Automatic annotation (TrEMBL):
Gene this chain is encoded by: gatB
Lineage, highest ranks first: Bacteria, Bacillati, Bacillota, Clostridia, Eubacteriales
Protein name: Aspartyl/glutamyl-tRNA(Asn/Gln) amidotransferase subunit B
Key words of the record: ATP-binding, Ligase, Nucleotide-binding, Protein biosynthesis
Catalytically driven reaction(s): L-aspartyl-tRNA(Asn) + L-glutamine + ATP + H2O = L-asparaginyl-tRNA(Asn) + L-glutamate + ADP + phosphate + 2 H(+); L-glutamyl-tRNA(Gln) + L-glutamine + ATP + H2O = L-glutaminyl-tRNA(Gln) + L-glutamate + ADP + phosphate + H(+)
Enzyme class: ligase
Amino acid sequence: MKYIPTIGLEIHSELSTKSKIFCDCPVSFGGEPNTRCCPVCTGMPGTLPVLNKQAVEYTVMAGLALNCKINEFSKMDRKNYFYPDLPKAYQISQFDLPICKDGGLTINTPDGEKFIRIERIHLEEDAGKLLHDSYDRYSLADYNRCGVPLIEIVTKPDLSSAEEAREFVEKVRLMLLYSGVSDCRMEEGSLRADVNVSIRPVGTDELGTRTEMKNINSIKAIARAIDYEIERQTELLDEGKKITQETRRWDDGKGESKSLRSKENAHDYRYFPEPDIVPVSFTSEDIEKLRKALPELPDKRFERYTKDYGINEADANLLLTSVSLSDFFEATAAESGNPKTAANFIVVEVLRRLNDSCITPEDIPFDAKLLGRLIKMMDSDEITSNNAKKVLAEMFETSKEPEAIIAEKGYKVINDTSEVENTVKEILSNNEKAVAEYLEGKEKTFGFLMGQCSRALAGRGNPKVIQEILRSELNKLKS
Ligand code: ADP
Ligand code: MG
Ligand code: ZN
């Protein structure tokens, strides 16, 4: 490797407030074009914005989750630019006094842990959307998204590969999801990133000229765009050419990026303090209150799962990939009284079923408590693990309570040892040849006889009990 890549990200995430940032229009994805807007969010002259308190609080919570300091005094600024999806011809954003600053997250890399610094998180309004496909010569504007509250998380140029960027975005996404401030639906554009990439020759310190790719809305695409850009810049430098500082558009379908325009500088935006909105100030008590309101975050949960419950790291990570799944696990674990068995059963059996039938954890068709009860019965040998799996399958089909399914199918383990004893004796007398072989020392036939007994008991025999009785009956025959 001749060059060292440097990557900085600007991650935009829409906040899940009920209403928009400066008006009471609803925040929800989709809808008939231009049905979720009003004079304020379509930028009519004479209207006045009112800052949404919840949006400010969510920004603080995001900042706390991402280990930022909260500015006790911050303000909104006008960023002037003309674009058809921005009807006011300026965006209300934050310039020099963002709500959050100086944070970061630790990610895992092949060379160990690495702290990626976050420079700032500011609050701003989202723009509308342009639809280019309906007519040849025209584009259409949909202003439903105008004024949706958006936070922008700006990292320092601390990332060095597509893989690190992917790790980082995934971790930020989880933090925002668990904080409850954003639904982070990348396919709906509620989480998207601008990706800045530069390379510099090994042995030099000064960062190279960067290019920026805007609005990439999948983690995979972010990684692909970075790899492509590193390669493109490498070729240019190898040919002795210079990198132009510019904005490029990543086309994920084609797997390439094209130059869009030369890079604008902050002074091009003619920022000035937004005169229609008063500055925001917090006391340290306000901030502490919001810190307390923050739900338990994934890294805390991870520690609890691995340290307190003894779940292995891979399984703990799997359970944490979604808030619903993690909550489902916790409710199951509490009801079953055995978090480790619950984790195992969910990771292997439940996740397999979710994957096979493309169900998301939110759509599991029964309450976690029911699964907790099933696991408890399995744990106390009231049903075999094999039958527990069958009960689970049926719960997915019918949402019935496990007890009802067990009664219906006769899965309850036979606790009456005399019934097991009779069955074992019967099997032994029907399989003289196998018994003789066992007595000659062929231990393998024990498994065969075990299988015969289980089958005769229709899977309801407690394997431990069958095994014990079978051994003792065979021992009797030995003497
Ligand atoms: P803007 O894009 O608005 O000019 P900044 O200059 O603050 O804003 O930088 C935006 C992003 O670009 C940040 O994430 C920063 O880490 C990253 N960045 C800055 N310089 C470089 C560089 N030489 N190579 C890669 N990323 C960079
Ligand atoms: Mg930028
Ligand atoms: Zn509105």
